[in-house]
Each structure stands twice: as C-alpha cells, then as structure tokens.
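QUALITY CONTROL LOG
STEP: pairwise intake check
CHECKER ROLE: data steward
CRITERIA: each record must contain a sequence immediately followed by its structure tokens, with no blank fields

ENTRY 1 OF 2
RESULT FIELD BELOW
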Amino acid sequence: MKRSALVLSLLLATGAVQAHDDDNGHHVSCNVDSKYALDTYRNAFVLTQEDGKPARISFGGGKLFIDGREAPLTPADQQRMREFEGELRQLLPEMQKITIEAIDIAFTALTEVARGLSSNPDKSVAKLKRSQALALRELNSQPSWMFGRDADDDAVAAIIDPIVSDFVPEITGSAVTMAMKAVFAGEEERQAMEARMQKMGDALDSKIDARAKALEPQAEAMCGRLRRMDAIDNALDYRLPSGKPIELLHVDVKETTNAP
C-alpha cells in the first residue's frame, strides 16, 4: 500500500494533515492511502499499479475503465464518479498550494536555526536557499505526489528528508561547540550567546506561528474533501471482476484531545 503524507508542518512529512487544533486542544488529522500511482491523460485521470490487478484504472466524465475496458456503471455510480473526479480536480491544486507554503515555512524555520546556531550562518543560509529552490522544482514536477509510485513512498519526504539529513549534523556540531564555549566563557560572552538564542527563538515565533496558524483552515478544508472522496469511493456499487470493491483510496481520520 502506498502511503502519502499530506504535509502541513514539514518537519517532516509525518503522514498526517493537521486539519484542526482548537482552543480545547481538539486535533483532527487525515491519513490517505492508495495502491495506485496517479497520472493524467488529456481530460482523464489514470491510476496504475505495477503489482496486482487491476493494473490500470482510468476515469473521466462519469465513465470508468478497468484495464482498458469500460466498466458497466449504474446511473448512480456514473454520478458518483463525476463527483469523485470533481473533488480530485479541486484537491490537486489545493494540495500543491498548501504543501508549497508548508515547505516555505519549514525552510524559514531551518534558516532561523542556521542563523542562530551555525558556525558560518551566511554559508548555511545560502545552502538552504539552494536546497529550497531544488525542492520546489521537484515538487512542481510531480503535482500528483499524493499517489506515490513506489510502495510506501512519500514524494515530499523523499525530497525533504535528504536536505534535513544533510543539515542536521552541521547544526548539531555547531550547537555542541557553542555549548562547550558557553561552559568556559566569561559572563559577557555567555550573555551574548544567550541573546543570540533568544533572538533565534523570537524570530521563529514571529515568522512561523502566524503562517502555520493560517494554514489550519486550508488543511481542514482539504481534510474534508478527502473524506468526501473516500465516502464516494466507498458508496460505489460497482465491483471489480474479482468481486472486490474498487477502493481508489482510503482515508483514516483520527481525532485526539490533548490533556489539560
């Protein structure tokens, strides 16, 4: 089963859309799974899998094709497929927009950490900016990343994880060095280090919190759309030649309430 993380906070691609977190600590997340990779052909959507049957599912305009043959759909199922297609067409640009914003928020956070902890902030920040540009180019080249091509693949994590893995040791080393210096430093130098840390924390609060909060209603709407798509998928009367339901995707909704 391919598993995709709809990312709201990029540190990093954890598998959940952070849809809502209200004043009472109530939190909703949506995990989406699909067996299929998604492509488009003209005005139709095409779902494929390398192992398993059907190998290819395509749909558009209320019609459904299974491995090249049109499926006999009832009028009700034709309407369901039109609704599913409509939701998917709206989902893809929404998903692209929110993920790009989440990536930008994540890199903003990493940049402030680099400024606060790196032994060579200018070099680290420049490196992060290059990495961010590369990440966005890769993401824009695969707008339907929600449906990965490899088992257990997460396209966003595949783009971001190497960047973080490369960045963390550098910052960790600088942080350890700074901590050692603080142990043996005089009072004036120690206060300067503390001021540097405070500045980093303030910058993170001012640049990250408001933007992350602004993503919440967008994520909530996207989570709702995914749930509607899952409900439409589950309502289809059509069965595959094997007798099994088609199951284009599965959405797992989790609700938790933080303890006071």
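ENTRY 2 OF 2
RESULT FIELD BELOW
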Amino acid sequence: MAIRAEICNELSDIEIVKKSLDDIDFFSCLYDRYEQKFLRYIKRITVVKQDEAEDILQEAFIKIWRNLNDFDQSLKLSSWLYRIVHNETISYWRKKKSFGKDRQVSLEDDHFESIPYESEEVDEELKEMFTHSVLELMPLKYKTVLVLKFLEGMSYDEISDVLKIPEGTVATRINRAKKSFIQMTKKENISLFE
C-alpha cells in the first residue's frame, strides 16, 4: 500500500522512522523527503552523471533500511542519513579509484563562452557554474565542508556528525577551504561576489 504524500508531510523524521520499523511502506516517505537533497549532495561532491548518482543513492538507502533498527532516535536523523550517503559516495569513488581523476574540470572550458550575459538569472547560473568548477578543483576534504555548510546549509555541529570529526576541525577546514576557494577564484581572475 502506497502512503499518500499528505500523510508523509504531516510526520516528523522520527515518526517516519518509527512507523517504517512497523510498516515498510512508510520508508518511502523518508526516501521522498530526502531524495533530491541527497542527489544534489552526491553530485556536488563528486563528478558523476545522474544515473551514477541515482545508483549511489539507491545503495545508500539500502544501507539506511538495513540499519534503521540501529538508529539512536535521540540523535538528529538528517545527520545520520547524510553520513550514510557520504560514506556510500566515498566508497563508490574508492571502488572506481578515481575521486574525480577520470574527468578534469577546467575554469577555461569552452562551455562558459556560450552563455549570454544579459539577465540577473543568467548571472546567477554563471556564478553557480563557476562555483561548481572551482569546487571540483579543490581537495575532497575542503570541497565536502563547503558543500555541507554553504550549499546544504548545515551547522558546524551537523557537519561534525556527518563527517565524524570534531567541531574545531570542521571550523578549521571551513576557514582553510574558504581561503583556498578565494585564492583559486583570484588566480583564475573570477569574481563571484561582486
């Protein structure tokens, strides 16, 4: 029996977990709630195609389902879910032994030349493309904290939970990553923040 979206929207994450343990149909509520966020996260920290991101997500949700009984319901569910998705993404790249080496991203790619520079909307899209290109050039540990903080909107505490590192390390990595990001944009003579 499929659970209607209205029912899912009325439930908190913890309520969905509790109901999922008794009725597998409620697990679809969890999937629907987080699917787009996690696909976006996977694609932001890796260089994968949509179908690869979907494969990673599917494997992550299988692990989530298998470990749902072990989830400590006094903790924040989203951090636990992100941790599983993050680990599955890293595991995928380790299996491929590439971590993005199979595709080099250059800030001078020709595809930027084809973008018209007329509207504010196009300017925002262009900034997003440049931001993504700069992120692709960064070491994974810096790219990950920037994506979690500024693109996923997580707090230092949540990032600490996802990456299983102390909050002080999160703060240090974010500061170093921001400096590196700014240096890279200056090096490429790009100003994203005008």
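INTAKE CHECK: passed for both entries
DESCRIPTIVE NOTE, ENTRY 2: The domain at 104-194 is CATH 1.10.10.10 (Arc Repressor Mutant, subunit A).
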